[in-house]
Design brief:
11 helices, signal, globular, 6-stranded parallel sheet, BMP family ABC transporter substrate-binding protein, Rossmann fold, PnrA-like, 16% strand, 15 strands, alpha/beta, 2 domains, 7-stranded mixed sheet, ABC-Purine-Binding
Length: 402
């Protein structure tokens, strides 16, 4: 939201339980129809195959003739959160490639739980001449799939999902867990009560949310083995009231740092009101709660959007899937709030960043203990991408579910 394009594991198909774009309240999604873990892994493996031997099915498009459609579940004008982060990526792409404002067709506040509105928005983009449409939220996926078949000359690029085809439909996402690990280090060094809260949009059935919470908790344990992470689930990608209430409940439990995997900055503003600290998500929430936000986990979506649109212009776009990470700049944390982070935090974060970017550390390495006394993983190995994106339905050992 953010993201830099490295030779990335291009074609990892994402799973049905990956993060849906957090949108306006009417866009709250029901993820109960997600695939089983085995089906998710199979989907991911299938998507790992090269599409059409890397050859594009599309001719070059003159830059002045290009139009780019973007479907947002929320309103980027809110200035914070998921849709804002995606739109900042679109703005970066537009600037890098020198496109006019009239060449970007935005459809905002399109609830992804409403397939009729979703289809209408996409058809309007097609009617306005868009050669590529970025659909930023999970439940836009099936509409993309159907319209891609109906309109083979239009490119449909879907964020956070797992479906794709061999011609004009792909998906894109990233290793957000890497940045969450770093943010866990920040939180673990700051807590004074050894109780850290985490407002989670979805429960353990959602691998992306759960994996993110686990990565955060692993980072906490790295610097503070005595701390526990209290996870409270809202069952909504965006519900300002529920996010506020969850943060209040965690603070009442004694949590003095509040992390989050949800759209609004409410957990951060609630932390500030209570005189505790927090870790934001999607955009830099230090803007919303400067006295509380230690750092934020962010996407630089411009990394992908710039690459993809340049390929449309060049006539080299293929339906390969994209799964970026910290090494190509897609995900990161914002600069630390030096006024309130614990002494030595910057040094610890840089050590961890080097491990990830230069030394091959993948967060989910080796044998990992779960909070129910079991273990996952193997010594000397790391969880593969399909498992990380579709098979993490367990919580790390220091997590307590509230």
């Amino acid at each position: 939201m953010k993201k830099k394009i490295l030779g990335v594991l291009l074609s990892l198909a994402m799973v049905g339980t990956l993060m849906a774009g957090c949108g306006q309240q009417q866009g709250v999604e029901d993820q109960n129809a997600s695939k089983t873990d085995s089906a998710q892994t199979e989907e991911s493996a299938d998507a790992g195959e090269d599409k059409e031997d890397g050859k594009s099915n599309f001719a070059p498009v003159a830059k002045e003739d290009l139009k780019v459609g973007v479907i947002h579940i929320g309103d980027p004008a809110d200035g914070s959160g998921y849709s804002y982060a995606h739109d900042q990526g679109i703005v970066e792409m537009q600037k890098e490639l020198g496109l006019e404002d009239s060449q970007i067709i935005r459809k905002n506040n399109i609830p992804d739980a409403d397939p009729t509105m979703t289809e209408q928005a996409m058809r309007e983009c097609i009617e306005e001449g868009c050669q590529i449409i970025f659909a930023t939220s999970f439940n836009y996926m099936d509409t993309c799939e159907a319209l891609a078949e109906e309109y083979p000359d239009v490119i449909f690029s879907h964020g956070t999902g797992y479906k794709s085809n061999d011609t004009n439909f792909n998906n894109y996402f990233g290793r957000i867990y890497q940045a969450r690990y770093l943010s866990g280090i920040v939180a673990g060094m700051k807590t004074e009560t050894n109780k850290i809260g985490y407002v989670a949009a979805m429960g353990s059935e959602n691998s992306e949310v759960t994996g993110g919470a686990d990565a955060f908790a692993i980072g906490v344990a790295e610097v503070n083995p005595d701390a526990q992470v209290y996870v409270k689930v809202t069952n909504s990608w965006l519900s300002p009231t529920e996010e506020t209430n969850a943060a209040k409940a965690l603070i009442a439990e004694g949590c003095d740092v509040i992390g989050q995997h949800c759209d609004t900055p409410n957990p951060q503003t609630e932390a500030e009101s209570a005189g505790v600290w927090g870790v934001g998500y999607n955009s830099d929430m230090m803007n919303d709660a400067p006295k509380a936000t230690l750092t934020s986990v962010v996407w630089n979506w411009g990394v992908y959007y710039t690459q993809a649109v340049q390929k449309v212009i060049d006539g080299t776009w293929t339906s390969e899937n994209y799964f970026g990470g910290m090494d190509d700049g897609l995900v990161d944390i914002t600069p630390l709030n030096e006024d309130i982070v614990a002494p030595g935090t910057q040094e610890k974060v840089e050590e961890a960043r080097k491990k990830i970017v230069e030394d091959g550390f993948n967060v989910f390495d080796g044998v990992l203990e779960t909070n129910d006394g079991k273990t996952v993983g193997e010594e000397g190995k790391t969880l593969d991408d399909a498992t990380i994106t579709g098979g993490i339905n367990w919580y790390y050992k220091n997590i307590v579910v509230k």
